[in-house]
């Protein structure tokens, strides 16, 4: 990030060029460059500090973890050769596979892995869960990691495998987890090119020639990660028509998430493939500030849940009924944790204005201002907030719908100040249907750990107790009941408001082969030409 380069993005229609300037690379043979259009630009390079989708996708490109998940969602070794369990299940010993090298040329040591895990365990909910059950985490030699638990905890390996990878050199991993790292150095199949990073414009990744992939076939985040292109360029193109034009004319190769309006056009192109790579979809979330303003009152939050009709939000945002599902509860439809508990408190089917105003009167609402952080540049969060704000205004809330770009939302949501000092009441985001909402342990927003938790900072001891019971249980029927109990507690207290499940299509040039079906865009195994 010491050197900045400028990328000119045009706004041409289909017949024109999407880019005003091209980068020319001096080399003996043409590099295989994959040009990717993410839904949002890369604002943070730190997967521990930021929960942004772009940061998570960036992490999968350059970092690895001890274990990954295969297509059956079972933990499989990645950086590790394997592990041993002894001391009645209280000690896990991992042996690193040979040949692991960081992008700066230094060998990966167990001390680097331990420091990276400890940073994860201080900030990320899954990591905090494991930290609470950990006696010690040590590196007795350069290839051995020893995790000692306070008591047997069968979910430990699953938590490590499901985590967004973040193994980095020890000196970077020692960065305070509340502060962003200054360098992005991992050991994965691709390396980050900091000199070509333009926040809001471009991020570049180059093939890591030192990388030695595992021999097993790739399977979701497990197995061999074969880098089959020389360079990956993330190009931020906020204008939908410009991005669509660039794909059709071959100026970009892959659009991560295609907006519903342009699906028909892309499907008519003989040079483009369109498919749903992520079968789990995304879960829309309306997040409340539990510390400040009217939304600190659970009765007000319950009234908001009752007012918001998920069907209206989804239909006006996504259009085609095949692209969304509503109403939903706290967990992804079709997963073992999905249930119908307390769904009657939601605003689907729509409740009358009189019903909502009666709830507001009982809650003691006196026209206090609600500040909504409205990401107007986001193709899904923006329309969702527009629908939510209009509906809340209609039924009697005093809504200050403050428009800004998504990166400003990311900054504003950090504030715990009162509303008149830059604080907020609500914002909209989305979580991955598999990574974030397939089980009670994963959703950041279902934690009840107050200011140590996700934005909004809810405190709920009952939710925490239920989550711990779910993690300790090995019985599927019991886990399903616990999930229902958690949903009932979350919805009846207005912990957050689910807005529906929506599905994204990806589109890519036909010369790309080996596209991965997964909840996140994975670039290994993808070839061009």
UniProtKB/TrEMBL annotation:
Ribonucleoprotein keyword on record: no
GO molecular function: peptide transmembrane transporter activity
InterPro entries membership: Peptide/Ni-bd, SBP_5, SBP_5_dom
Domain of life: Bacteria
GO cellular component: ATP-binding cassette (ABC) transporter complex; outer membrane-bounded periplasmic space
Database matches in CDD domains: PBP2_NikA_DppA_OppA_like_16
The entry's keywords: Signal
Claim: Cytoplasm is one of the keywords in the record: no
Cellular compartments annotated: Periplasm
Residues of the Solute-binding protein family domain: 75-436
Single GO biological process annotation from the record: peptide transport
Leader peptide range in chain numbering: 1-26
Primary subcellular site in the record, as a coarse category: periplasm
Family the UniProt entry places it in: Belongs to the bacterial solute-binding protein 5 family.
Listed name of the protein: Peptide/nickel transport system substrate-binding protein
Native organism: Chelatococcus asaccharovorans
UniProt lineage: Bacteria, Pseudomonadati, Pseudomonadota, Alphaproteobacteria, Hyphomicrobiales
């Amino acid at each position: 990030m010491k050197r900045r380069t400028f990328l000119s993005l045009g706004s041409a229609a289909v017949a024109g060029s999407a880019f005003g300037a091209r980068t020319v690379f001096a080399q003996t043979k043409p590099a295989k460059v994959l040009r990717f259009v993410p839904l949002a630009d890369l604002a943070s390079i730190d997967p521990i500090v930021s929960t942004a989708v772009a940061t998570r996708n960036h992490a999968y490109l350059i970092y690895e973890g001890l274990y990954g998940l295969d297509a059956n969602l079972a933990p499989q070794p990645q950086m590790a050769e394997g592990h041993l369990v002894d001391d009645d299940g209280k000690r896990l010993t991992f042996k690193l596979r040979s040949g692991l090298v960081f992008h700066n040329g230094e060998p990966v040591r167990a001390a680097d892995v331990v420091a990276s895990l400890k940073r994860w365990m201080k900030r990320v909910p899954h990591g905090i869960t494991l930290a609470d059950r950990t006696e010690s985490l040590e590196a007795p030699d350069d290839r051995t990691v020893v995790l000692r638990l306070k008591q047997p905890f069968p979910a430990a390996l699953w938590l490590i495998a499901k985590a967004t990878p973040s193994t980095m050199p020890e000196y970077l991993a020692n960065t305070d987890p509340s502060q962003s790292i200054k360098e992005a150095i991992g050991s994965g199949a691709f390396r980050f090119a900091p000199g070509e990073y333009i926040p809001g414009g471009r991020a570049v990744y180059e093939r890591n020639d030192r990388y030695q992939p595992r021999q097993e076939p790739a399977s979701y985040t497990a197995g061999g990660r074969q880098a089959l292109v020389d360079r990956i360029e993330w190009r931020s193109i906020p204008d939908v028509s410009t991005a669509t034009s660039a794909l059709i004319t071959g100026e970009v190769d892959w659009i991560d998430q295609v907006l519903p309006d342009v699906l028909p056009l892309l499907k008519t192109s003989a040079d483009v493939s369109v498919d749903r790579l992520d079968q789990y979809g995304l879960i829309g979330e309306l997040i409340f500030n539990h510390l400040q303003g009217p939304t600190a009152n659970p009765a007000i939050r319950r009234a908001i849940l009752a007012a918001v009709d998920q069907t209206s939000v989804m239909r006006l945002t996504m259009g085609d009924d095949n692209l969304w599902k509503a109403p939903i509860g706290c967990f992804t439809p079709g997963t073992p944790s999905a249930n119908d508990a307390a769904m009657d408190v939601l605003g689907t089917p729509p409740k009358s204005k009189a019903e909502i105003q009666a709830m507001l009167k009982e809650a003691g609402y006196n026209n206090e201002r609600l500040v909504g952080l409205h990401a107007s540049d986001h193709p899904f969060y923006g329309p969702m907030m527009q629908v939510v704000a209009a509906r809340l205004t209609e039924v009697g809330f005093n809504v200050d719908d403050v428009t800004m770009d998504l990166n400003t939302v990311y900054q504003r949501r950090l504030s715990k100040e009162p509303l008149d000092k830059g604080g907020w009441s609500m914002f909209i985001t989305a979580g991955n249907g598999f990574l974030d909402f397939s089980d009670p342990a994963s959703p950041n927003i279902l934690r009840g750990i107050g200011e140590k938790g996700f934005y909004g900072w809810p405190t709920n001891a009952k939710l925490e107790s239920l989550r711990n019971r779910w993690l300790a249980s090995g019985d599927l029927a019991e886990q399903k009941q616990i999930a229902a109990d958690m949903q009932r507690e979350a919805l009846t207290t207005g912990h957050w408001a689910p807005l529906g499940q929506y599905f994204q299509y990806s589109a890519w040039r036909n010369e790309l082969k080996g596209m991965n079906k997964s909840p996140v865009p994975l670039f290994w195994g993808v070839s061009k030409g």
